[in-house]
Design a protein that fits this description.
428 residues, mainly beta, OB fold (Dihydrolipoamide Acetyltransferase, E2P), 4 domains, 9-stranded mixed beta sheet, 5-stranded mixed barrel, globular, DUF5666, transmembrane helix, DUF5666 domain-containing protein, membrane
Length: 428
């Protein structure tokens, strides 16, 4: 066994659990069957255990092994649960299910049954379903991500806690006053439990529970209860989707080229949210591009970066994502809504200085300028610039200049839920 006497790392054979994460910081998370390390700093991570003589400090995150591995994923449920307490697609984060909350201490169990104990403080931010919540809004049994940032002395600070909701989709086949039954594409069913906190949306607008009827397609986000039913936080009505680059506009007909990535459902599935997308460049680079038609009428609505616009805002070269009803051959769509896609940046706020927001994403530092026309949302609720604080996760949409600086039309706080143009659809 190898031991670092003055640090927080101990190694014991095959019990090494984690490797280097989050940029170039040298975080090594190993497991030994001893006591926890002591670090006298608020909201910190050690991911290790040292000699049995030490007792964990209330300001640490420590990791301990256990043989009980009870985490399961129900059939059909989309699984975002990473192994070993770590999601490889979300560098700098640990994840697990909350097993207890005591004061400002949260205990988690990861997929490989590793126990993670975290202490949070007044600077930690919390989000659920795209909305900012508080520590009191966390519940035992919920899965969460702990986002960490590095420090020069090797101690890692927890900057954000994000509730990771289970989500599923299907067609409503039964409705009661407090539940829905949805049938998935594979004909399996799921009971969805409704409560006073459940929100309902259709094309970005709030609707009522009574609007959900048999035959309606929905996506549901929430937490599984002990009965295996999904307790819904958000229910979004889904429509067929078609998206691509505009090649012609003729009256109420918009002709688009749909590339292989998006065809025929469209949207931004697979898009790197931290790189400006193909909006307005008029380029389709894949050999699998095909031509489709979007038909609009007087009831069709149009949006760009969360703002209402007119049909005249769409030009040849614009990249659009439309929702509505596909024809039987999937070559055309009668649109209820057409969204003009804008470049996006998504990351964590590191500074707010007047009209400038500095954002850190996986590609580096981004500069975002805001003005009197910038719109702010927290989920579907209106927000303001004062809600944008250091440590907040956000997504910004707007125009990007040649230097990479964005002038934001929309600032979405929290980890935005998928909405129109958000990467799922039924036209496929």
């Amino acid at each position: 066994m190898k031991r670092k006497e003055n640090g927080t790392i101990a190694k014991q054979g095959k019990n090494k659990r984690f490797a280097k994460m989050f940029g170039g910081a040298a975080l090594v998370a190993t497991l030994a069957f001893g006591g926890g390390s002591i670090l006298n700093s608020n909201t910190t991570l050690t991911y290790a255990q040292t000699a049995p003589a030490a007792t964990p400090s209330s300001s640490d995150i420590t990791v301990a092994p256990t043989t009980d591995q009870s985490t399961q994923v129900q059939h059909g449920m989309k699984d975002r649960q990473g192994g070993r307490g770590q999601n490889p697609d979300r560098a700098g984060e640990l994840e697990g299910a909350i097993t207890s909350i005591s004061g400002n201490t949260i205990t988690l169990k990861s997929n490989d049954a590793t126990i993670i104990t975290a202490t949070v403080d007044s600077t930690t931010t919390y989000t659920e379903a795209g909305k900012t919540i508080t520590l009191a809004g966390l519940k035992v049994g919920e899965r969460v991500h702990l986002k960490q940032t590095g420090s020069s002395n090797g101690i890692y600070t927890v900057s954000a806690v994000e509730v990771e909701l289970n989500h599923d989709q299907g067609t409503v086949t039964a409705v009661s006053s407090d539940s829905l039954t949805i049938t998935r594409a594979d004909n399996s069913t799921l009971k969805v439990v409704l409560n006073s906190n459940t929100t309902y949306t259709d094309l970005g607008k709030t609707i009522n529970q009574s609007d959900l009827k048999s035959g309606v397609k929905v996506e549901v986000e929430g937490n599984l209860n002990s009965d295996g039913n999904l307790e819904a936080s958000v229910i979004e009505v889904e429509h067929d989707r078609l998206g691509g680059t505009v090649t012609a506009i003729n009256g109420n007909s918009i002709t688009i080229q749909v590339d292989g990535r998006d065809a025929p459902g469209g949207g931004r599935k697979g898009q790197d949210h931290n790189k400006p997308n193909a909006a307005n460049n008029g380029t389709v680079t894949t050999s699998t591009a095909t031509t489709k038609t979007i038909t609009v009428d007087s009831s069709t609505t149009y949006s760009a970066a969360g703002q209402s616009v007119q049909l005249s805002a769409i030009a040849v070269g614009s990249r659009v994502d439309a929702e509505g009803t596909l024809s039987s051959d999937s070559n055309s769509l009668t649109a209820l809504q057409v969204n003009i896609q804008m470049p996006e940046y998504r990351g964590q706020v590191t500074a707010v200085d007047g009209s400038t927001i500095t954002l850190q994403d996986r590609n580096g530092t981004r500069t975002i300028e805001i003005n009197s026309s910038t719109k702010y949302l927290n989920g579907t609720t209106a927000a303001t610039l004062s809600d944008v604080k250091v440590g907040t996760n956000l997504e910004a949409e707007g125009q990007v200049d040649s230097s990479g600086k964005m002038t934001a039309s929309l600032i979405q706080l929290g980890q935005p839920q998928q909405g129109p143009g958000g990467g799922h659809g039924h036209g496929r």
